[in-house]
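It is worth pausing here to work through a concrete case rather than discussing structure prediction in the abstract. The textbook approach is simple: state the sequence, then state the predicted structure, then interpret. We follow exactly that order.
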Amino acid sequence: MPQADASSSTSRRAVLSQLAAVPLVGSIAAFIPAAQAIGEADATLLGHIARAIETHRVMNDRTHKSSDEEYLALLDEFDSQLDDLAEIRAVTPTGLGAKACLIQLYLPSYFHAFEVDERSPEIRLLFSFIQDATFFAQRNAV
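Step two, the predicted structure:
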């Protein structure tokens, strides 16, 4: 797992604190408890998503209260959780939808912080695909 360094923590801390203002989209909140309660095939994925959201919430709650070391430890934990999520495949529409919603919540702020041109055809195609996956999952969730 790559370690965050102090030089990038300032801009990442600002980005992540802005993400605290992003509400948890109703659709992702609906995916997680219902699927876990019925023993959904993607329960492991959904549990990882829930833990990543919670870590991110804690990180933002402590943004201005933590030392740099504490904040970097939380940031490393969040990055590790995202790495884990990248390795877990969604096998149901519910899992696909939850993963797509998570990406929709967090990716745009990273693009903005690192000056990625969101109007480029490649990025527009990526966002379109994520929106399609979310829509498909919502339509096909049981």
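Step three, interpretation. Residues 111 and 118 are 7 Å apart (CA to CA). The two ends are 36 Å apart (CA to CA).
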